[in-house]
């Protein structure tokens, strides 16, 4: 392992982050478990950053990929592609967007990049509204609208970005307000902001902020925002890269918690739909999707082998009601963690929905972020046989828990016990 780490450092960028003091090589997985190169078995509560959505080595997906690979792997979008059309049909229907068109990419970053291209072209302006504490990818345009300085290495951007209040419920200038007043204050802030700028192209927002530490506003905030945006024909882009496909339990898409004013104009997706295959994409109304006046293709977006994986994975998800499982098992897991956290002075909040759970850590007796303890808990959880993630806003001090949606009650209890012990070791 030390040899592989040395080789990694020799040929890969210094900024390519690795978890753990002794980085882990994962060699294989099954169900909700993975194994490392030394034969150690771990319960996986992070799923390759919310990507292994159903299960590791899911037989239905493995079979579909193997059979497709035996026929043809790739032909590009210059040719008709049956699996791509079939998956697009299913996603268009599930999206809730009327007269929907779907464009496939290879990642969530590229999906958001495409959404920004569509919105700015359609609206003929390069001004974008984004949320504070947000994350939308690592391309030049998506970095430029990311409201989290830990993930935005440059201020240069092809876009003018204006940041809006509301993505973080329990911090910031409106944190002490009740939910109704919080929404009203954020809407008033948005109206004030729009009074000082030319009309923007779109607001892009994650219904639950992923890298930001699984924070979210009260239900209905983005619906209230949309009423304001519609007055100036400003588009709403829902970044569902992490919240999509039923992970939040209560809804299939995160935007549905804010759906009182209708669906978003543009929806982006990635991660879980491929269960590890490189699938991203954009859904938009036809008039928006078709606004580009020059040619475009995607060499690898929608390639046959990834579409086969996506179709099999989506079918498994729907046929086995994994959204319902996320709601039931996630609810139990959240309550179990909240009960443990009540006894730990360093846990500020346990938040989330379904199987998208954040545990925010602070220095005991203060409201100050505690990234050192977050790293220590990450290490202790690994020692106990559990893999989790981390994130957060002003400082990385939120633990991120996002297991495959097929997680069982017994596995949730096992993971909660390991995490509780890891938290106790830090506090």
Biggest pleated sheet = 7 strands, mixed
The portion of residues forming beta strands comes to 15-25%
Global geometry? globular
Query: How would you state the average pLDDT, rounded?
Result: 96
Class inferred from helices and paired strands: alpha/beta
Spatial gap, N to C terminus: 30 Å
How is the largest sheet built, in terms of strand order? Answer: 4-10-9-8-7-5-6
| Number of β-strand runs | 15
The low-confidence parts are: none
Key terms for this structure?
13 helices; seven-stranded mixed sheet; 427 residues; 37% helix; alpha/beta; single chain; four-stranded mixed sheet
Describe the structure.
The chain has 427 residues and is of the alpha/beta class. The chain is 37% helix and 16% strand. The strands form 3 sheets. Strands 4-10-9-8-7-5-6 form a 7-stranded mixed β-sheet, sandwiched between helices. The chain has a 4-stranded mixed β-sheet with strand order 1-2-3-13. Helix 3 runs antiparallel to helix 10 (304-319) and helix 7 (179-194) runs parallel beside helix 8 (221-231). The two termini are 30 Å apart. 52% of the residues are buried. The mean pLDDT is 96.
Which secondary structure elements does this structure contain, and how are they paired or packed?
Elements: H1 2-11, E1 26-30, E2 33-36, E3 41-44, H2 47-50, H3 59-69, H4 82-95, E4 100-105, H5 108-123, E5 127-131, H6 140-144, E6 160-164, H7 179-194, E7 202-205, H8 221-231, E8 235-239, E9 266-269, E10 280-285, H9 286-289, H10 304-319, H11 322-341, E11 347-353, E12 356-361, H12 371-383, E13 386-387, E14 389-391, E15 398-401, H13 409-426
Parallel strand pairs: 3-13, 5-6, 5-7, 7-8, 8-9
Antiparallel strand pairs: 1-2, 2-3, 4-10, 9-10, 11-12, 12-15, 14-15
């Amino acid at each position: 392992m030390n040899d592989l780490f040395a080789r990694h450092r020799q040929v890969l960028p210094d900024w390519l982050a690795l978890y753990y003091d002794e980085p882990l090589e994962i060699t294989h997985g099954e169900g909700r478990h993975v194994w490392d190169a030394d034969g150690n078995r771990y319960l996986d509560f992070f799923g390759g950053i919310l990507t292994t959505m159903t299960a590791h080595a899911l037989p239905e997906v493995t079979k579909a990929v193997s059979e497709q690979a035996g026929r043809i792997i790739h032909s590009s979008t210059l040719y008709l592609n049956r699996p791509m059309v079939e998956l697009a049909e299913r996603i268009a229907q599930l999206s809730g967007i009327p007269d929907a068109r779907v464009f496939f990419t290879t990642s969530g970053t590229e999906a958001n990049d495409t959404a920004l291209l569509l919105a700015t072209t359609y609206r003929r302006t390069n001004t974008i509204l984004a949320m504070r504490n947000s994350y939308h990818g690592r391309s030049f345009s998506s970095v430029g609208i990311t409201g989290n300085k830990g993930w935005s290495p440059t201020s240069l951007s092809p876009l003018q970005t204006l940041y809006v209040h509301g993505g973080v419920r329990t911090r910031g200038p409106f944190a002490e307000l009740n939910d109704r007043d919080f929404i009203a204050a954020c809407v008033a802030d948005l109206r004030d902001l729009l009074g000082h700028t030319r009309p923007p192209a779109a607001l892009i927002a994650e219904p639950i902020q992923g890298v930001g530490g699984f924070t979210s506003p009260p239900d209905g905030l983005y619906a209230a925002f949309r009423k304001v945006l519609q007055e100036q024909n400003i588009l709403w882009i829902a970044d569902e890269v992490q919240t999509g496909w039923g992970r939040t339990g209560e809804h299939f898409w995160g935007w549905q918690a804010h759906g009182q004013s209708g669906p978003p104009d543009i929806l982006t997706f990635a991660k879980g739909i491929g269960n590890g295959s490189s699938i991203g994409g954009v859904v938009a109304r036809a008039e928006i999707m078709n606004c580009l006046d020059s040619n475009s293709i995607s060499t690898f977006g929608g390639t046959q082998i990834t579409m086969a994986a996506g179709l099999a994975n989506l079918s498994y998800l729907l046929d086995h009601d994994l959204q319902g499982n996320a709601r039931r098992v996630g609810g139990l897991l959240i309550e179990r963690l909240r009960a443990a956290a009540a006894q730990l002075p360093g846990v500020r909040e346990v938040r989330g929905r379904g199987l998208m759970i954040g545990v925010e850590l602070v220095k005991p007796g203060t409201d100050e972020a505690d990234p050192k303890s977050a790293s220590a808990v990450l290490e202790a959880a690994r020692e106990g046989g559990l893999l989790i993630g981390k994130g957060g806003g002003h400082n990385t001090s939120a633990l991120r828990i996002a297991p495959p949606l097929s997680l069982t009650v017994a596995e949730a209890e096992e993971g909660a016990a390991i995490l509780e012990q890891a938290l106790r070791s830090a506090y």
